[in-house]
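Sequence, please.
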C-alpha cells in the first residue's frame, strides 16, 4: 500500500503562503512513514520539504478561497497543478493505495468518485465556497469515511449534524522549547494579509501602548505599508518570517500571542505553536481556536473586532500559568497523536467503514 499526500494547490511547500496546511502535509508524510507506510507527497513546482519522497508537478496555482466570492464557480482550467496531480494519480495509483488530499478545492472531492483508489480529504477551511461546501455535504451524506476536519466548529460551519472525524494538527515538541519566563510584550504570527486582521494588532498597540512584534511571510507588502501609515505611532515591529526552531525560540519570549483573524479559521495552528512554548493566546472567539484557548487557563477569548476586549484580556494575561499552556499541547496536539489519527483514518478509508469517526484515536 502506498499513501499519496496531495498538497495544497495555492502555494509551493516551504513558501509559507500555504499557511498551516504546509505543516500538516509535511508532518503527515513523516509520521506515516515512521509508522511503516510508503508515502509520497505531490506538491506544486518549487516546493521544498524534508519528506521521505516528494514529487513536484507544474501547473497554475489555485486562488485561495479566503479572498474569493462565496458564489464564485470552481475554476476548471486544464493547466492547473491540481489537474496535473489528479491526472498523474489516476494513471499510477493502484486499488490498494490511498490518497490523502490536503487541498481545499472542489476538484479532488469530485474526483474521489472516479479514481482507482480511495481518496480522503482533510478539510482545512470552513464554509467559504458554495460549490465546494455542497460537495462536502454530499460526501458527508454518502461517503463520510472520505472526510476529516480540524475542529468541531469548522465541521459545523458546513451544517453537518452527524458525527465527524476530527484530526487536529500535531507538533514535534522537541522543536518548541518551553519558556517559563518571557521577557517581551506581545506577538502576532501569521501571513501578512488582510484576512488575518493585522490591522487590529496595530490598533491594539496604538491604543494600549503595548509593543507587538509581528512574525510571518510578507504576502502583501502594500497592506503592511498601509497599516504603518494608518497607525504611525503604533509600537509595532516586524520580526521576519522565521522557521523552526528559531520561530519557537522567538515566540516563547513573549507574554502572549494575539490572534485577530477576519475570517473563521478552521483551527489556527499558530495558536498551539505558541502554547507549546508556554505562551498564552488572546484570540477572537471564532473558529477552531476555541478548542484550545480556554478562558483563564490557556489564554482569553474575546468577541471578534472587540478592541477593548483585547486590551482587557492583555491586562489579565499574568493570571495564566504558562505550564498549563504547554501541558495542553503535550496532551492533545503531538505529532504522535496526529500520526495515529491519520493511520486510523487510513484504515477506515481503505476498508470503506462509514460508521467510524475515529473518536478513540
Amino acid at each position: 500500500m502506498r499513501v499519496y499526500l496531495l498538497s495544497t494547490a495555492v502555494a509551493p511547500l516551504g513558501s509559507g503562503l500555504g499557511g498551516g496546511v504546509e505543516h500538516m502535509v509535511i508532518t503527515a508524510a513523516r509520521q506515516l512513514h515512521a509508522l511503516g507506510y510508503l508515502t509520497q507527497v505531490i506538491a506544486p513546482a518549487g516546493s521544498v520539504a524534508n519528506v521521505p519522497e516528494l514529487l513536484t508537478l507544474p501547473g497554475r496555482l489555485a486562488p485561495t478561497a479566503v479572498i474569493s466570492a462565496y458564489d464564485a464557480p470552481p475554476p476548471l482550467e486544464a493547466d492547473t497543478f491540481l489537474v496535473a496531480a489528479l491526472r498523474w494519480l489516476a494513471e499510477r495509483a493502484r486499488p490498494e493505495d490511498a490518497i490523502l488530499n490536503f487541498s481545499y478545492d472542489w476538484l479532488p472531492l469530485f474526483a474521489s468518485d472516479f479514481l482507482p483508489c480511495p481518496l480522503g480529504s482533510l478539510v482545512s477551511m470552513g464554509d467559504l465556497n458554495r460549490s465546494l461546501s455542497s460537495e462536502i455535504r454530499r460526501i458527508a451524506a454518502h461517503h463520510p469515511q472520505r472526510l476529516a476536519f480540524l475542529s468541531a466548529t469548522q465541521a459545523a460551519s458546513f451544517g453537518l449534524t452527524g458525527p465527524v472525524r476530527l484530526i487536529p494538527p500535531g507538533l514535534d515538541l522537541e522543536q518548541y522549547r518551553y519558556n517559563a519566563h518571557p521577557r517581551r510584550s506581545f506577538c502576532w504570527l501569521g501571513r501578512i494579509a488582510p484576512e488575518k486582521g493585522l490591522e487590529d494588532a496595530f490598533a491594539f498597540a496604538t491604543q494600549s501602548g503595548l509593543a507587538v512584534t509581528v512574525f510571518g511571510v510578507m504576502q502583501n507588502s502594500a497592506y503592511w505599508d498601509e497599516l504603518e501609515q494608518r497607525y504611525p505611532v503604533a509600537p509595532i515591529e516586524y520580526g521576519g518570517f522565521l522557521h523552526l526552531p528559531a520561530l519557537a525560540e522567538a515566540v516563547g519570549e513573549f507574554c502572549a500571542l494575539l490572534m485577530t483573524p477576519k475570517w473563521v479559521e478552521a483551527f489556527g495552528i499558530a495558536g498551539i505553536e505558541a502554547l507549546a512554548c508556554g505562551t498564552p493566546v488572546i484570540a477572537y472567539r471564532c473558529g477552531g481556536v476555541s478548542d484550545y484557548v480556554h478562558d483563564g487557563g490557556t489564554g482569553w477569548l474575546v468577541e471578534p473586532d472587540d478592541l477593548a476586549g483585547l486590551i482587557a484580556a492583555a491586562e489579565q494575561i499574568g493570571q495564566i500559568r504558562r505550564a498549563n499552556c504547554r501541558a495542553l499541547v503535550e496532551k492533545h496536539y503531538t505529532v504522535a497523536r496526529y500520526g495515529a489519527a491519520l493511520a486510523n483514518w487510513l484504515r477506515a478509508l481503505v476498508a470503506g467503514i462509514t460508521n467510524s469517526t475515529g473518536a478513540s484515536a
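The chain has twelve helices and twelve strands.
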